[in-house]
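To whoever is on call:

I kicked off a structure prediction for a single chain this morning and the downstream step that reads the tokens threw a length-mismatch warning. I double-checked the sequence; it's 345 residues and nothing unusual in it as far as I can see. Pasting both halves so you can look.
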Amino acid sequence: MLNILFFGSDSESSTSRHRADALRRLGHNVFVLDPILVISTRNRLQSYIDYRTGFRLLSAHFLIFIKSFLQQLNTPIDIVWIDRGEYLSSTHLNFLRTKLNCRLLLFNIDDPLGPRDWLCFTTLRRALPAYDLCVFVRQETSLEALAAGAQRVLTVNRSYDEIYHKRQHITQGSGLHKALTFIGTNIPGEGRAIFLKSLIRLKLNLAIYGDGWKSCNEWQSLMASCIGSSLTLSLYSDTINRSYISLGLLSHRNRDLVTTRSFEIPASAGLLCAELTSEHQLFLEHGVEALFWSNAEDCVEQCRFLMGNPLLRDLIAFNGHQAIQKMGLGNEDICRQILDHLMEH
């Protein structure tokens, strides 16, 4: 059993919280230090500047925040697990190492060395040499981190959560009348709104849950399909399970070939419909365990075919769920892998 100081979001809707809970289920003591307590005090303009300056203006605030938390913590710490890591500089990390005499671990499922969020992760990139182990989900990110001075890196698969994304005991597709559901945020510059508009133009019934869509140029076309904001906790898995088909979109500027949605959807017993990539094909078989498309027209054609074949649709969803369950891609599996790698060196 390890005592872990976990620096990351404690929101139940965040994958960061899911990992902290997975560490608890593995039997470790986890003490969460949530950075939202610092950044939530910033107004809109300050947040805009913070993001584009790598949160450097918040450095002193975070140091005070960390010191205050440690004053109340009377437990020796074995590992400091930094989830994402965009807020902490080498100054913070060196203070934690000196104060706690423990190992420092970075876990980041984004692409801090890629083009999309380059400014946001400026502080993180400079702090890479201060970590004992840096864990990423892209091989290219790991190699670039080594080139940027990281001591050790580990590449792991993305994961779903065994509790938050478990299969619901309801009839697949019940309660909804939409062919396709997309749960996700509008990301400027990714073309998501254009793609979804194309699906609607091709007469595919679409239900969209997520934030940021009202600000896109395609809002008038998407408005009727936007059902609500982002879904959290059981509502997320329940909606996937009740949908006939669930869409998974990649972030190309984040160099995605697969995303957490690719595993969360089949884990929730939904039918994954995602872009055709080498990594998607590595994990799931097209037409047997998931659907993969090359463009909007291809996506619509496949969805329409399965809408008229409910038995095949349910079989593919079932096969995908079974396949994901056998792969060892739960948060507990990935967290165990990371800790074993960290502690054996």
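Update from on-call: the warning came from a stale cache, not from the record. Cleared it. Sanity check on the structure: The chain has a mean pLDDT of 92.
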